[in-house]
Design goal:
The chain is mainly α. Helix content is about 70%, strand content about 0%. The longest helix has 24 residues.
Length: about 170
């Protein structure tokens, strides 16, 4: 493809590229930036284009790849890396707590109420809170999975009932 023909075809695709960029970004300014980045990348890589390839598809694929790479870069830059000794502690600001049980009750009150449950409810509920899956709890306690789910549900309801007076 001749240099002028290549540039003319690229110019002819600008409206299609702009529409595709907007469909990816959902923002006019970001779409214009993506259009500009794609145009520059296409011009820089014109020697990689072969005649038997669909030009429009080639250009829009470049645009999509630029969008994906930019998105990944943004996500990577927003990732929080915990550099504390305790690898399970995140250095994030703590929530106000109004949407969580801790916002209404102290952890001690919650734990005391859970400890007051009979073992048949306390053990599966505590394991569930610690992150065990239903299957793991059922296997550990030698119970059917339905029984485990039922006991966890009933323990949760009992805890809500015991703590409802604190909320008002």
């Amino acid at each position: 493809m001749k240099p002028n023909q290549f540039e003319n075809e690229l110019i002819a695709l600008q409206n299609n590229m702009r529409n595709f960029a907007f469909s990816l970004t959902l923002n006019r300014e970001d779409a214009e930036d993506l259009l500009q980045d794609t145009t520059l990348k296409v011009l820089d890589n014109r020697e990689k284009f072969t005649k038997n390839v669909n030009f429009k598809g080639w250009v829009l694929t470049i645009m999509k790849n630029i969008f994906i790479n930019n998105y990944r870069k943004i996500v990577r830059n927003q990732t929080v890396i915990d550099k504390t000794e305790d690898m399970y502690h995140l250095n994030l600001p703590q929530n106000s707590g109004f949407d969580s049980p801790e916002g209404y009750y102290s952890i001690g009150e919650i734990n005391n109420n859970i400890e007051s449950f009979p073992d048949e409810y306390r053990i599966p509920f505590s394991m569930h809170l610690q992150g065990y899956k239903y299957e793991e709890i059922a296997e550990t306690m030698h119970l059917p999975i339905g029984t485990v789910k039922s006991r966890i549900f009933l323990a949760r309801k009992r805890l809500q009932q015991q703590l409802k007076d604190y909320r008002d």
